[in-house]
Amino acid sequence: MVPRIQVYLVVIFIQVLVAAAWTNPSDFNAMQALRGEWKNTPPSWVGPDPCGMRWDGITCINYRIVSIMCASFGLSGQLPADIGSLSELQILSLNSNKFIGEIPSSIGTLPKLLWLDIGENRLTGRIPVSNESASGLDMLVQTNHFHFGNNQLSGEIPSQLFSTNMSLFHLLLENNLLNGSIPATLGLVQSLELVRLDRNSLSGPVPQNLSKLSNVQDLYLSNNNLGGPLPDLTGMMSLSYLDMSNNTFDTSDVPTWFSTLQSLTTLVMENTTLSGNVSDKLFSLPQLQTVRLRNNRLNGTLLNGTLNIGSSPSTELQLVDFQNNSIQFFTEKPGGYNFQIILVDDPYCQRSTSSYCILPLPANSSNSIPSNCSTPRCSEDQVPSPNCQCAYPYTGTLFFRAPSFSDLSNRSNYVSLQQSLMSSFKHLPVDSVSLSNPSKNLDEYLTLSLQVFPSGQDYFNWTGISAIAFVFSNQIFISPPSFGPYYFIANSYQNFPGTPSSSHKKSRVITGAKVCGSVLLFLSLAAGGHAFRQKGRAEIAASQIDPFASWDPSKNSGGIPQLGARNFSFEEVKKYTNNFSETNGIGSGGYGKVYRGTLPTGQLVAIKRAQQGSMQGALEFKNEIELLSRVHHKNIVGLVGFCLDQGEEMLVYEYIPNGTLKESLSGKSGIRLDWMRRLRIALGAARGIQYLHVLADPPIIHRDIKSNNVLLDERLNAKVGDFGLSKPMGSTYRTHVTTQVKGTMGYMDPEYYMTNQLTEKSDVYGFGVLMLEIVTAKAPIVKGKYIVREVKQAMDVTKDLYNLHQVIDPVIVSSASPRSLEKFLDLALRCTEEQGVSRPTMSEVVKEIESIMELAGLNPNAESASTSESYEGARKGYEHPYSDESLFIYSGAYTQFQVGA
């Protein structure tokens, strides 16, 4: 037995180390408990300082742990109650591991939690809610995501879990062991966009008030024991995907509300005892892709048992499946249809040899994406990538639910899908992806094996896996263009570098146990001084490899940036720009000059080079590096890297070829923007800002939303740029930040101007002004007239186009439907309400613009124009988007002209 004095000295030693650590003590204790409970933790999880020593998967701000992103780490063990001590935690992403046991109710004490993903584990027990002795998950009213699918959770879904003040977007409870009825309180959560309750043992009727969930786009209730009458979901006008298959609803005629859901893409009602006739209006829904109504008692569309799909079905339609129903006759359009129709096992097929009576052959499961070269010879445990590099890939399975990617024999589909996936991994250490083994599972989902290959080395580190897994989790229900919704189930990654074997760990424990009492005594006496000396040595060593070793916080530049972007040397940038040649110059401003550059990979970049005495300054330079390093979204300008070398400050962005929105609205770029294109640009910009507010870590207030900061790529997709004035939000994205007033006059929130209290609603105000600029093609302030005031004064809602004919840009009057234009103006004016509390959130703005696009007959998820070559008008000479023209920039107590702000 170890002498008591030695135990005492060990305790003293540990306490001294804890005192010297940088991580908040409460967070440190919680992480120690997690590390002690979990197995297979990353090798970096050593030492007493998770923040200072940068444990993989752990993100800190001001020495407080704000996110744990350890998806697919291969972790096992239980989720300890100590998680509840991480009071600043905003993201808890532990999906695709091997956790067992119950969900700790202490998670409910995390007031700032926005993202909770514990899916794809082996968790058991009930969903915890509050009682007299403990808090539960019902307290997480700010949380946007509950991802609990593919576990073994049991019991009823607690009615107490849901309330009107919740901010929940995604509720994922699929493939568990839940029973009982669907609680009616679910209908109170108006923010919901996706609900998955399928593959459980739920029973009883579906609550009628679910119809009030007008924002829900995907509803999965299949494979339960639900009964009673078929619910009327008329109010779910955003519904895109509906599956209530394999339940025991009362025998029912086909409801008429099916054909009223204008956003519907997929209707799956297999084995639901439906009978009678289907309205032929269903097949003409503008976005409909799939109708699967097999194994029912349907007679078709006419009383005599005839199926008549109509003369003008949706151009998006891919599959109509009436297998095993009561179809007697089928009326075919002359020339046939360009989509698949299945009538197998219907009476019609007893008299016909039509192709509709033959089940389609299964696709070739050996198909895979073609490689770019001959297969290299790799070691036994490595895999060749499409780019001929031997590596250890991150693997898993993609599950697709829509038929638009059902042609498994078409290799071009795989190439397009690969490109779509690669765009999701932009700025991540991914070399390539490989797709193989297409097949259909028991749920008729198309499945594909996916391999993601590392870039620059033959393995991923823990941080890389965490980032990639989070991208999949984040985009789990976003539909890639032309492929339909999908989700991803990952395999645990087994090839992290430097993971010690269990025998090695054991030998270290044995060696440690042999340390004599005298050494312990020495350590305890020397621990304090040693800890501080080690801290100093660590800082010196870090400074030697830190590109910001010479950073001077005293020059109003703030603390040293937290990096995530690539650090280029001056010589590299000089080479990429051909020695900063004039021919590569693409603009200039108060910040400095902008050059076009070409990386060795062939990627075009825009390099913003600061000049001596730049107005932007070190703080804005630092801001852009820090913020853009951790935001990755298709509607955000990507930061490729930076250069802080030889006295130079340079930012390296992705190259955006079609300039700013301001240049196109003014006619300077020669690109003609009709109403359709302006709506798509507005939606793209809104989605980018929504990402900053809701999903960035931490959430970000842009603080300078304007048309000069919305850039247009080669397909006129909008990208929000210029983060020099941006600020991370407070403890949650709804709390304010007290700050010196900065921004652009005309776009600036009057409430922020008066109070210095910056919130996300300040961005909403700027976006509202931007919307008015999109409609009028006029700057916010022209000859002393303010666009918001001018529109409000001239507006008359009783007249056509609100009596704004003299204000609206004539270019769009002929191409815009009056109602869509009016609703766009309504939304813009709500965004520019004087009080922030009266303005919508950016999530609500995105939803409303999507609805306006649908009202105008547009698909909000469709691609923009193919290339800039398709735009009317010859493009004229104009300055590059990274070179802003002079605008009034407000900063502090004075107004100045600032170029390139």
Structure description:
Helices cover 23% and strands 20% of the residues. It is of the alpha/beta class and 901 residues long. Among the domains are: 383-490, 2-Layer Sandwich (Alpha-Beta Plaits), CATH 3.30.70; 556-655, Phosphorylase Kinase, domain 1; 660-898, Orthogonal Bundle (Transferase(Phosphotransferase), domain 1), CATH 1.10.510. The chain has a 13-stranded mixed β-sheet. Helix 10 (675-694) packs antiparallel against helix 12, helix 10 runs antiparallel to helix 16 and helix 15 (818-831) runs antiparallel to helix 16 (842-855). The longest helix is centred in the middle third of the chain and has 29 residues, at 517-545. Its EC number is 2.7.11.1. One of its GO terms (molecular function) is protein serine/threonine kinase activity.
